[in-house]
């Protein structure tokens, strides 16, 4: 029986990974095709408006832009699979070290932003569920709805002006590498991470509230309360695990959107992350760099979705049983 269950779980994981690989392939085709079919000429941008057509044609040949799109895609995909992100069309410098350095900034910002969102949304969402229909519960729900309507750049500008420029509690913008000073690095990331956290927590509060309303209406929670458990211990012991499936789903979706939201936040707080670098390279029409960064962001979203999908079977064994019944 155990061997059958292990084999079924292995097949489930293999199938999910297979769909992930197929999604990555389709995404790579779409990204490459769309970016290479955009109007404009990279060679013309590099050489400037006064360049002769002969110079432009020579540079296009040097960059391989005069080749058919299919062999160019195959060559690019092969390089991506080996971890080679190519070189900048403008400078000829390798993309890998630049992207790795800037990705570290974005990753730190996103993880701190998600941590802030969870620390804000989890207690507020649980409180809103326990106090639904009362003034404080209604107030939390109302603020979450209001927060969903406020763009991230508005929150970022407000925090930068009030907390940074007016009160001088934290740096309003800029960045210090962690290798130079951990304290300065963290202080420069607090406001950007809080911006992401506040925006995302507004969405997350509603899902946490809904999940815990379902939990406190179940028999196991009422039984725990009836035998003497206090409210918060009963919520922590019986509620978190049973509500975690919905919460993990939303966290996975939120983590994906955080990478997109980081582009705006990095611009507001002048952070040298992947998002601001992408905006700069789009303006320069540096297609090799843009392709690589967009594909990295797409891969991150797909990997997060895969991990969330696989985590379901760890959180809720009933899903594995459901897979077994379907296979039978």
Protein architecture, described:
With 328 residues, this protein is mainly alpha-helical. It is built from 13 helices and no strands. The two termini are 14 Å apart. The relative contact order is 0.13.
| Fraction of helical residues | over 70%
What pattern of helices and strands is seen along the backbone? HHHHHHHHHHHHH
Q: What characteristic shape results from the CA principal axes?
A: globular
Q: Could you tell me the number of beta strands?
A: 0
Strand proportion, as a percent range, falls in under 5%
Uncertain ranges: 322-328
Radius of gyration, in Å, reads 24 Å
What kind of assembly state do the chains in view correspond to? single chain
- Number of helix segments? 13
Structural class: mainly alpha
Average pLDDT figure: 80
Secondary-structure map with pairings?
Elements: H1 2-36, H2 42-47, H3 53-63, H4 69-81, H5 96-130, H6 135-149, H7 152-166, H8 182-216, H9 219-226, H10 231-268, H11 274-284, H12 287-315, H13 317-327
Helix pairs in contact: 1-12, 1-13, 5-6, 5-8, 5-10, 6-8, 7-8, 7-10, 8-10, 9-10, 10-11, 10-12, 11-12, 12-13
Keywords for this structure?
328 residues; mainly alpha
Short description:
The protein is mainly α and about 325 residues long. It is built from 13 helices and no strands.
